[in-house]
Design a protein that fits this description.
Rossmann fold; 7-stranded mixed sheet; 27 strands; binds adenosine monophosphate
């Protein structure tokens, strides 16, 4: 028997329409650096999204055409987020932190026909232009430097438009088409540390369902009473789904634009008083140092979502002391990205050690995400909190393949997808009987010493809880006797001296077994980071292999 229910497609335009009509007075605030921030209501953003869609249609953008964005987090980028998929085209967010060759590869692979670019990023776009045969139009939002603007105007074969002029005078409503909910709405490439970037095409349906999950009380639990500071870039898995989720429940958005240094972030928090914020640990480490050096009133910010890399316990503790409650979350570009969120179960006492231990896990699986652990022999492992294996996931907002390029077919590489269709995450960890995931490593970062695994993350967390250590990254290096051993690289705090024996003792006192203690150590100026601020261990391993690290043995 089939149901008797209506079959309304789950579309991005449905989220937009709802946000405009029901939460029309909620606001998108964009930080401008100096003076007043720019404020736009959801109703205004919706009207401008309609104008943008009319403008893009006039430029020839039709259903399925890929429209790239090379933009910071700001109201115009939110307008593109809704306009492009709602009209049936595909939004492709370009990662402005990538080197030119990778950006150029990605924009060509995706087949961008139009690119919307912030004026401040035109210089980044210029070297790509000769390499994009499908590109017809560039739309510039905000002022570009004189020379960059002139160079762009001189590029042949590409028409240049000004964003506000493209919108001006156009109708503020658009008859959004009724699309198949399984069609691609937006395209995001992985910023992984190995291999070529891979494209994940989110569908209207996956975005809709994922946005509902973001808002659930067991996830971010944000409502129209909140102002969310969205530091996680719009080019990195749709800002963890926050713009879409916001239009569902009226969450007000505070967008930092290009002002991402700790000083401006602290000022933004003090002046605009967000209640929620989301970013990777690196950003929060920077903010913590800033607030220690220059205290400010950040009391409004009571909920902080940290994900993208493991949240060091010392960071979580420090934020607790500032009155900001950290919620740790795990996800990937391939998972839209929300996978798990670490909200402790109701049964544990608030403030207890048990509660803290739950909060440090990567979190609990929501109903929409199924997880399983696969052991080294391909066998499925029990959820007993101790059996460690590679995490595989499946669900309606998890990728089932990679985008094969504008002219290609989707690909399902065997190292990324199991034969029965689960996504192989490349993350290694355990799952507790009550469904909490604890990651101990990336499969490629785990240290295999004498047939046993050593978790690099565990060593890093223990090192970063030492007062002399600002950052620490541990990588596997070849060892004649044991196969691999850990090399600990540390960034020391200002004025601290390198005392590796003391750091070893600190690790031992933090419960690290004797055989796991690193004997190879190096002081580095900074941990190399990927384009989205994660530790780039590939670079560290490379430096070690080249002999570029000064390694001491203790
Ligand atoms: P990306 O696709 O760039 O978002 O990277 C996804 C990867 O980031 C995951 O496969 C994990 O290795 C890592 N990651 C994300 N969130 C966490 C977390 N909370 N703890 C540890 N690793 C994480």
């Amino acid at each position: 028997m089939f149901s008797t229910m209506q079959d309304a497609p789950l579309l991005v335009s449905r989220i937009l329409r709802h946000g405009v009509r029901v939460h029309g007075s909620s606001t998108v605030i964009t930080w401008t650096g100096a003076g007043e921030a720019q404020r736009r209501t959801f109703a205004e953003v919706g009207a401008r999204a309609a104008q943008l869609a009319h403008g893009l249609r006039e430029l020839g953008v039709g259903e399925g055409d890929v429209t790239g964005t090379l933009m910071w987090n700001n109201a115009e980028h939110v307008e593109a987020y809704f306009a492009v998929p709602s009209m049936g085209a595909v939004l492709h967010t370009l990662n402005l932190r990538l080197p030119t060759e990778q950006l150029s590869y990605i924009a060509r692979h995706a087949g961008d026909k139009v690119i919307l670019v912030n004026g401040s990023l035109v210089g980044l776009l210029l070297p790509l232009l000769g390499n994009l045969p499908r590109l017809e139009h560039v739309v510039v939002s905000g002022a570009a430097a004189d020379d960059a603007g002139a160079a762009l105007a001189a590029v042949s074969g590409v028409q240049v438009h000004e964003y506000e002029e493209l919108l001006a005078g156009r109708p503020t409503v658009y008859d959004w088409p009724e699309l198949d909910e399984r069609r691609a709405a937006s395209l995001c490439y992985t910023s992984g540390t190995t291999g070529e970037p891979k494209g994940v095409a989110y569908s209207h349906r996956s975005i809709y369902l994922h946005s509902m999950q973001v808002n659930m009380a067991e996830s971010m639990g944000i409502t129209d009473a909140d102002l969310s500071l969205v530091i996680v870039p719009q080019f990195h898995c749709n800002s963890w789904g926050l713009p879409h989720a916001a239009f569902m429940t009226g969450v007000n958005l505070l967008m930092p634009d290009r002002f991402l240094q700790p000083g401006p972030i602290a000022e933004m928090i003090e002046r605009e008083r967000p209640t929620h914020a989301a970013a990777v640990p690196t950003i929060w480490q920077g903010l913590l140092a800033e607030l220690t050096a220059k205290p400010r009133d950040v009391s409004s910010l009571t909920q902080v979502t940290i994900g993208g890399s493991a949240c060091p316990p010392a960071l979580m503790k420090a934020f607790d002391e500032l009155g900001m409650r950290v919620f740790h979350a795990w996800g990937m570009t391939e998972t839209s990205p929300l996978g798990t969120v670490a909200r402790p179960p109701a049964k544990v006492a608030p403030g207890s050690d048990e509660e803290f231990a739950y909060r440090l896990t990567q979190g609990r699986f929501p109903a929409g995400v199924e997880g399983r652990l696969i052991g080294p022999g391909g066998e499925e492992l029990p959820w007993d909190g101790t059996s460690a294996g590679e995490l595989e996931v499946r669900g309606p907002w998890i990728a089932g393949a990679y985008f094969g390029g504008v002219e290609g077919e989707p690909t399902r590489p065997a190292d990324k997808f199991s034969e029965d269709g689960w996504l192989k995450t490349g993350d290694v960890g355990t799952i507790s009987p009550d469904g909490y995931l604890t990651l101990t490593d990336r499969a490629k970062d785990v240290i295999k010493s004498g047939g046993e695994w050593i978790s690099s993350v565990e060593l890093e967390n223990a090192l970063m809880s030492h007062p002399d250590v600002a950052e620490a990254a541990v990588v596997a290096v070849p060892d004649e006797k044991w196969g691999e051993r850990p090399l600990a690289t540390v960034v020391l705090r200002e004025g601290a001296a390198a005392d590796f024996v003391a750091l070893q003792a600190h690790l031992a006192s933090n419960g690290i077994a004797r055989w796991q203690l690193p004997e190879r150590w190096a002081v580095i100026a900074e941990v190399p980071k990927t384009s989205v601020g994660k530790f780039d261990k590939k670079v560290l391993r490379g430096r070690f292999a080249e002999g570029a690290l000064k390694v001491e043995r203790v």
